[in-house]
Each structure stands twice: as structure tokens, then as C-alpha cells.
Design a protein that fits this description.
347 residues; alpha/beta; TIM Barrel; four-stranded antiparallel beta sheet; 14 helices
Length: 347
């Protein structure tokens, strides 16, 4: 069974020869793993752990974006949305923080329309097509921008939430302009993929550690229709739709299912996402991705504790298919190598 077959069968709740696995890590972790094993490139790390999924994306070829150092020596880079991101060393890894929100100065719908929204033409789809040739037997994931998360870097969250509550037309214009770009961009990726893309995976962190960021009614008003549009696009090209959302998002799971979402990730240790509960309630309608806790057992547990936790998630969420193994987020700088090894060894 190839990796592509394994992932696709798992998402369709069919039996596989073993649970499929995915991998994400911050840069310093990947560098540490390459040095530890004597590998020259990240692909060797993925093959060492027998990872079934490859996340690919097109090269940016649009207008030049600024990059400079501030007085503290930290790099600030303008991304293609116009947000300024500052890279800060935490003592364990480099983290990016938005320090300029370009839509904060917008006050009217006309201001929003005059803003330079990104163009789907700013990306190299032919190069992306060639990159796919390197992984004929792997499951391919594409996507990052979703209806909500990137908007929080365009307009500061306080302003955005006030817009949603008091200026709905303004908030809708922001989200709709974003999704208009996403629909064109992702369709061109899916067309370039010629059926080889398996998962479209937009990111939208709708939850906190204890609850949703806003009410279910607000989610329905602003995100239900746009989520459905993106799901329909993925399905049009034979891809599955994986909804990324950190946090306690249990209240919207039925809504995601109604929109046609195929996979939910990550599964964090938060109220409502207990593996037994979500498998029983939604396991015949939704597949799950992630779950091995990057806030607890992976950084602070022993390898044996990691193996026990991994086995628990495989046995519960993987029963009858429907599970892709990964950490609840990408491995960060505080996760020991032996715990990463223990997680994947439990397959």
C-alpha cells in the first residue's frame, strides 16, 4: 500500500495496513534532527520516520516585499498580504509576531477595496507542478490561508471582533475579499496538480484553550458559507478538505460536517475534543489528524509515556480507519528527539 493509498483510505474510514503519519516541525527542530542523524536535507528526516504526507506549495514570484532589521537586530519581513512579521528568538526557537496590521487604518468599504489584495498571479504554478513529480507515491497537502486566521494579521483582532459585532458589512467585505483570492489561488493549484493533490488544508484558529473565540452564531454568519465554498472546490478536484483549527472547537464540529469537511485537525487536549468522545459522536462522519500533545507529554513526558499516549490515540481514533497520526501542533524546540522517535515508533 502506498502512502497516498494509505492516507486516502484512512480518510474514507477504510482499513489500512498501518495508521498513516504526518510530520511538522519548526526550523530548529528539523535542523536538530538532520544533525542528529547526519542527514543533508529535511526529506531524509521524513523518510526516516516513514511519513506518508508531503506539504507543498508554490513559489512566490509577485512584487518584491521588504525585509529589514530593527534596532534590536530582529528581522522584520513584509509578507504578500502586507503584514509585517517580526522574528524573535525565544531561547528555544524563532517565532514570528505580527507587528503591523495593514487594514487597521481602513475605516470604510472603499478603503478596503483600494487595498492591494494579493493576486493569484503572484505564484509559480508550473514550478509547483514539477515539484509534485518528486512525490508520486505520497499524499500531497496544500493550503494555508483560510477565511479567518490570516485576517487576524491584516486587522488587529480587537478591531476585527468589533467589526463582526457592530459593522457586519465591513467584516464581511474583509472575509469575502480574502476568500475570493483563496478560491482562485487554490483552484489554480488544484488544476496544476492534475488530480495528484489529496488534501486542501486551510488554517483558521477558531478556538482558545477553553472555548470558541466567538459565538456559534457569529461563526455561522461569517464563515459557514465561505467554508462550504472552499470544501466544494476541493471536492470538485477529487481532494479532501482538512479543517485546521487550534483550540476548543467542539461547538462547530457539526457545522463543519454539514459543510462537507472531511478531516479535523489538530486534536488538542482541550474540553470537548477527548478522543473517546469525538470518535463516538463523529467518527463515522469525520476523520481526525494529530492529537499527541505538544504542550504536555511530548516536551515533558518520558519516551514510554509518549508511546502510551500515542497508542491510545491510534487505538481510539484509528479504529476502523479515520485517523492520521501527528502531534497536536508541529514539534517545537522543547520536544526531545527521543520523544519524537517514540511517537513514530509506536506505529
Amino acid at each position: 500500500m502506498t502512502s497516498k493509498e494509505r492516507v486516502r483510505r484512512a480518510i474514507q474510514h477504510q482499513a489500512t495496513d498501518r495508521v498513516p503519519a504526518d510530520f511538522e516541525a519548526v526550523g530548529v527542530v528539523m535542523e536538530k534532527l538532520q544533525k542528529h542523524y547526519g542527514f543533508a536535507e529535511p526529506e531524509q528526516v521524513l523518510r526516516h520516520f516513514d511519513i506518508d504526507v508531503r506539504a507543498l506549495g508554490p513559489r512566490y514570484i509577485g512584487p518584491e516585499r521588504r525585509r529589514w532589521q530593527d534596532t534590536d537586530g530582529c528581522w522584520i519581513e513584509e509578507n504578500f498580504w502586507g503584514t509585517w512579521n517580526k522574528t524573535v528568538w525565544t531561547g528555544k526557537e524563532w517565532n514570528g509576531h505580527a507587528v503591523h496590521f495593514p487594514l487597521d487604518s481602513c475605516e470604510t468599504l472603499e478603503d478596503l477595496d483600494r487595498y492591494e489584495w494579493p493576486s493569484a498571479d503572484w505564484f509559480d504554478y508550473e514550478g509547483f507542478r514539477r515539484d509534485l513529480d518528486r512525490y508520486p507515491d505520497k499524499a500531497i497537502t496544500v493550503g494555508h490561508e483560510g477565511p479567518f486566521q490570516v485576517a487576524c494579521f491584516l486587522r488587529s483582532m480587537e478591531k476585527l471582533f468589533v467589526d463582526m459585532a457592530l459593522e457586519p458589512e465591513f467584516a464581511h467585505r474583509i472575509y469575502d475579499r480574502m476568500v475570493a483570492f483563496e478560491l482562485e489561488h487554490y483552484e489554480r493549484l488544484l488544476q496544476a496538480g492534475e488530480g495528484r493533490i489529496d488534501i486542501l488544508r486551510p488554517h483558521d484558529d477558531y478556538g482558545t484553550q477553553i472555548s470558541m473565540l466567538f459565538s456559534l452564531d457569529l461563526w455561522r454568519e461569517y464563515f459557514r458559507d465561505n467554508t462550504r465554498k472552499l470544501v466544494d472546490l476541493a471536492h470538485k478536484y477529487g481532494a479532501f478538505y482538512m479543517q485546521h483549527s487550534c483550540g476548543a472547537v467542539c461547538p462547530i464540529i457539526p457545522e463543519l460536517i454539514a459543510c462537507g469537511v472531511d478531516v479535523l485537525e489538530p486534536i488538542q487536549k482541550v474540553a470537548g475534543l477527548e478522543p473517546e468522545a469525538i470518535k463516538k459522536a463523529y467518527g463515522d462522519k469525520l476523520a481526525f489528524h494529530g492529537g499527541i500533545d505538544t504542550q504536555g507529554v511530548l516536551p515533558f513526558g518520558t519516551p514510554e509515556e509518549v508511546r502510551r499516549e500515542t497508542r491510545k490515540y491510534i487505538d481510539i481514533l484509528g479504529e476502523g480507519g479515520g485517523y492520521i497520526l501527528m502531534a497536536s501542533q508541529g514539534f517545537e524546540g522543547d520536544v526531545p528527539i527521543e520523544n519524537i522517535e517514540a511517537m513514530y515508533a509506536e506505529r
